[in-house]
Design goal:
Dna Topoisomerase Vi A Subunit, Chain: A, domain 2; 2 domains; five-stranded parallel beta sheet; four-stranded parallel beta sheet; 14 helices
């Protein structure tokens, strides 16, 4: 999980303040390394702050993660500030948000990590079907490609479910209707995420039933579009990233169709369609840059959408077939393992 990985990345510059040894065990068992200090067994907030000060490092506060009081975290902040030690609470805030649905069931950080791992596995429908997402700026051919992929995969014997965002559900329907026209980019981003939360559950259920889900747009659209400054307003990318993190690991494959906005807008106009507020060239150039940055960060497969439709389709099918082969191999491996246990 990227939030936990970010702790290891701070190893040389930060001391990680946790409540007790059980929290350290949970972090290390999840592959996290760092300079840990137990607040409760190490002399309390005063001594913990002094440990960071003596080490000449900043601090990561990782206590009160479920936000049931924040008393210990408040004491740590007070003592750190008194010693002039800078501190990071963003990682704790992100964990608190992600474990929100399980707050009543958690007792320590290890149970938080367990619940989050189960949630991600449940969303992915591991080893069953697959969730394939197609992203790109307007005019790259996403809808055309999604329809063709669904048709060919169905002809090859797969059970396919096509979907898109915003959805046509209750929240998505309101977004599509324009009922929220004029709201800020941050508000619009939150509306898309509310729609996505319900949508993800439906996609995960379909994948768990063995279906191949083809989705036109997903979490990257929110990050790319709502943070790119439409009409002078934008959502804060740093604020959006933690909220989108839980969705980032859902797709088995994300394909990014990439092309110059000058080309894509020509395609839109050639179809006789009205250009929407999201289709201004300067804005789309910024969106494209965000998409490419996200592709590098999250491992999207980038396809040159300036190619002909047949070439784009073949490139996409190569990526999808590889993912489906990997899923079949994982399923076969688990089946053999279950069979061996049964014979044992």
């Amino acid at each position: 999980m990227k939030t936990l990985d970010s702790i290891s990345a701070l190893k040389g510059t930060h001391v990680v303040l946790v409540e007790g040894s059980k929290d350290i065990a949970a972090l290390t068992s999840s592959g996290v390394s760092g300079d840990f200090v137990c607040v409760q067994s190490g002399g309390g907030p005063v001594r913990a702050a002094e440990a960071a000060w003596k080490a000449g490092k900043s601090a990561v506060i990782l206590t009160d993660w479920d936000r049931r009081g924040n008393i210990l975290a408040d004491d740590l902040r007070t003592n750190l500030m008194a010693l002039g030690v800078s501190y990071n609470t963003r990682i704790r805030d992100t964990l608190a948000f992600l474990c929100g649905p399980y707050a009543k069931d958690v007792e320590s950080l290890d149970s938080v990590i367990l619940h989050l791992e189960k949630s991600l596995l449940g969303m992915r429908g591991v080893g069953m079907g697959a969730i394939i997402v197609v992203e790109g700026i307007d005019g790259t051919g996403k809808s055309t490609l999604c329809a063709r992929l669904a048709k060919v995969l169905a002809e090859e014997g797969y059970e396919v479910e096509s979907t898109s965002e915003p959805t046509r559900g209750k929240v998505g329907g309101l977004i599509r209707s324009g009922a929220f026209e004029g709201v800020s980019q941050s508000t619009e981003a939150l509306l898309f995420m509310a729609d996505r939360n319900d949508h993800t559950e439906r996609m995960a259920e379909a994948a768990s039933e063995g279906k191949v889900v083809i989705c036109d747009r997903y979490f990257a659209s929110t990050l790319a579009y709502q943070s790119s400054g439409l009409d002078g307003g934008r959502a804060d990318m740093d604020a959006l990233l933690p909220l989108c993190e839980v969705f980032a690991k859902v797709p088995d494959l994300t394909i990014l169709l990439d092309a110059d906005p000058a080309l894509t807008m020509g395609r839109v106009r050639s179809r006789g369609e009205d250009v929407s507020k999201f289709e201004e060239a300067g804005f789309l150039r910024r969106v494209r840059e965000k998409y490419l940055a996200l592709a590098e960060e999250h491992g999207f497969k980038v396809i040159d959408a300036s190619m002909g439709p047949d070439e784009v389709f073949e490139a996409a099918m190569r990526e999808i077939r590889e993912v489906l082969r990997c899923i079949r191999r994982r399923r076969s491996t688990r089946r053999r393992a279950r069979s061996s246990r049964g014979r044992g």
